[in-house]
Amino acid sequence: MYNEIDWDKIDVTTEPPTEEPARQYYFMAKCREWVKGFEQENGRLPAACIQTFGCQMNARDSEKILGILKCIGYMETGSEDADLVVFNTCTVRENANLKVYGRIGQLKKYKAKNPGMVTMVCGCMMQQKESVEKIKKSYRNVDIIFGTHNIYKFAELLAMKLLDSPDSKKMVIDVWENAMEIVESLPAERKYPFKSGVNIMYGCNNFCSYCIVPYVRGRERSRKPEDIIAEIEGLVKDGVSEVMLLGQNVNSYGKNLEKPVTFTELLEKVERINGLKRIRFMTSHPKDLSDGLIEFMGRSEKLCRHIHLPLQSGSSRLLKIMNRHYTKEDYLLLVDKIKKAVPDIAITTDIITGFPGETEEDFNETLDVIEKACYDNAFTFIYSKRTGTPAASMDGQVPEDVVKERFNRLLEAVHRSTARKAAQYLGKTYDVLVEEVNAQEEGYVTGRTGQNYLVHFKGSKNLIGRIVPVRLCESRGFYYYGELAGD
Ligand code: SAH
Ligand code: SF4
Ligand code: F3S
Question: Against a cut of 0.90, is the pTM above it?
Answer without folding.
Answer: yes
